[in-house]
Amino acid sequence: MKIEILDDHETLSQQAAGRIVGQVRAQPASVICCASGDTPRRMCRIVADEIARQHVDFGRVALIGLDEWLGIDPSNEGSCHYFFRNEVLHPWKLREDQIHLFDAFAHDPLVECRKMDQLIRERGGLDLMIVGIGMNGHIGFNEPGQPFDLYSHVADLDKTTRSVGQKYFKEKTVLTQGITLGLQHLLEAKEVILMASGSAKVDVVARALTGPVTEQMPASVLRRHANATVMLDKEAAARVL
Ligand code: PGA
How far is CA 142 from CA 119, 146, 165, in A? Predict the structure, then answer.
């Protein structure tokens, strides 16, 4: 695992966007998993600008959404669907058949999980996975205490996720479960980038990178990955410098 420290969120976003564009230039049919949330939003916009500026062909990319809140409508601004449609699908000019998102209303969420696992397997695995880190150390909805060796699964959201998650919603929203790729996907991805920005993440980043590798701190799993980069801005990196 490598650590890269960038000046600020803008530089961090440019760096991560450059990695996505570079990946697609090198391998046009890449399978890329991306997180939604505040951290990757700017990166997604820079990717859109670079696609237009450099005329990069994203027409063979498969884009996989990292997770979704179960039971939250795709039209809700706080849903991951809303993020991927507005920040990725349209701006990156992808076709509908190129983007694969968990259905928040799947009749059987476990079947939905197996479908996602199968899709990733059939495409030859994830080439690049870009994730963030939650205030409790989660990646996607891999909450503290869940095994590292899970593929897609349904997770009960912990207290921190249920309260921090309110920031994405206009109104107070009951959040109980999520559907997510598992950390086994991350361990098997050919390359992983974890982005963290801002002083609020300073403690959790330090614990993930310098504390024990444990299922109680999901992001610590990255230290078991041979091709992982943690991209931090200076504020988030203050306790790992
Ligand atoms: P954020 O979310 O990018 O909105 O901080 C990170 C996460 O919870 O994984």
Answer: 20, 6, 14
pTM more than 0.90:
yes
State how far Cα 159 lies from the chain centre.
Answer: 20
228-237 pLDDT per residue, tens = 999 999 999 9
- Ligand 1 centre distance from Cα of residue 39 (Å): 6
Task: Read off the pLDDT of residues 67-95 as tens digits, 9 standing for 90 and up.
Answer: 999 999 999 999 999 999 999 999 999 99
Residues annotated as part of the active site: 67, 136, 138, 143
Q: Does the C-beta of 182 come closer than 6 Å to ligand 1?
A: no
Cα–ligand 1 centroid distance for 161 (angstroms): 9
**Is the dihedral angle over the CA atoms 207, 9, 165, 223 positive or is it negative?**
negative
